Amino acid sequence: MWRILAGGGAVLLLGMAGVFLFGSRAAAPVLPPAPPPDAIAPPAPLPSKAPEANEKTREQKRFDRYDKDRDDIITRDELLAPRRKAYAKLDTDHDGRLSFEEWAIATSERFAHADADKSGKLTRAEFATTRRKTKPKPKCVCSEGGE
């Protein structure tokens, strides 16, 4: 019997504590005074016609990057042109073949540049300098307030 009374008393105490804690009223936030009506600028007039945007899909943009002569057809040469340029940069002796050294030259040069103490090994600090630099994203050139 005493357990029931103790449980009932605990429920009453918890209920009263909840009312006390959650029943208090929060202070109303203090708002700054409203500006006088003559200080508010009238909104700019809206244009009569909405601007039209040229929405290209990702695939259309990708297609346009390869279609250099803009004839809406990608030839084999147009598709391979970026790869030929990359290959020509790697083929340092211009014999039309890539040796392992030619293929690995970019990595070797990056390693040599990062190995500041010329020990043939990279420390953590030296390795951190090999991270590729990313281009920052362009900031939005949106007009403020519809101007």
Automatic annotation (TrEMBL):
One function term, GO molecular function aspect: calcium ion binding
InterPro entries, A to Z: EF-hand-dom_pair (IPR011992), EF_Hand_1_Ca_BS (IPR018247), EF_hand_dom (IPR002048)
SUPFAM superfamilies reported for this sequence: EF-hand
Superkingdom of source: Bacteria
Pro residues: compositionally biased ranges: 33-48
Residue ranges constituting the EF-hand domain according to the UniProt record: 78-113
Compositional bias per record (Basic and acidic residues), positions renumbered to this chain: 52-68
Chain intervals for the UniProt region annotation (Disordered): 33-68, 127-147
Protein name according to UniProt: EF hand domain-containing protein
Source organism of the structure: Hephaestia caeni
Upper lineage: Bacteria, Pseudomonadati, Pseudomonadota, Alphaproteobacteria, Sphingomonadales
